[in-house]
From TrEMBL:
<dbReference type="GO" id="GO:0101006">
    <property type="term" value="F:protein histidine phosphatase activity"/>
</dbReference>
<dbReference type="InterPro" id="IPR013078">
    <property type="entry name" value="His_Pase_superF_clade-1"/>
</dbReference>
<dbReference type="InterPro" id="IPR004449">
    <property type="entry name" value="SixA"/>
</dbReference>
<dbReference type="GO" id="GO:0005737">
    <property type="term" value="C:cytoplasm"/>
</dbReference>
<dbReference type="Pfam" id="PF00300">
    <property type="entry name" value="His_Phos_1"/>
</dbReference>
<dbReference type="InterPro" id="IPR029033">
    <property type="entry name" value="His_PPase_superfam"/>
</dbReference>
<protein>
    <submittedName>
        <fullName>Phosphohistidine phosphatase SixA</fullName>
    </submittedName>
</protein>
Length: 154
């Protein structure tokens, strides 16, 4: 199984609520740069946080890749979610290649939890950063970190 973890692109600093913050122009550009890393990858599904910036990020990636299926929205991909809840949900999924579009600290905590088996070593993820994890089973401590792609600022 391959799990791709994408943190949303740079977002506006303020909105009526945190969930309503939208991507900036730079955030959109960064997401498209990261989407190029996924070109040609056999994604089975794209799942995203219900927050606007994550939805926008997922749609940009979906369009850039020409991914036909709709983006799935799941409530546990928000900033302060518990990685254990995510694993319960993901255990029910059948895809071998899955992209999750989410936020910090959740994305960093989930990656660290899957790699190390605990949450004391989160994987640093900037905006539009993409981590690739691989393993036979989606079990804490049994996934390997293949790569982390960080956006290059020009």
């Amino acid at each position: 199984m391959r799990l791709w973890l994408l943190r949303h692109g740079e977002a506006e600093p303020r909105a009526a609520t945190d969930a309503q913050r939208e991507l900036t122009r730079h955030g959109r550009k960064d997401v498209l740069q990261t989407a190029a890393v996924l070109a040609g990858r056999p994604l089975g599904a794209i799942l995203a946080s219900p927050y606007v910036r994550a939805q926008q990020t997922a749609e940009l990636v979906r369009d850039a890749l020409g991914f036909i299926a709709a983006v799935g929205t799941v409530p546990w991909l928000t900033p302060d979610s518990d990685p254990r809840e995510a694993l319960d949900f993901l255990a029910e999924r059948g895809e071998q290649d899955l992209l999750l579009v989410t936020h910090n600290p959740f994305v960093s905590d989930l990656a660290g939890f899957l790699i190390h088996g605990h949450r004391q070593e989160p994987v640093p993820m900037g905006t539009a950063s993409l981590a690739e994890l691989e393993g036979d089973l989606l079990v804490p401590g049994l996934m390997s970190l293949r790569t982390v792609h960080h956006v290059r600022r020009h």
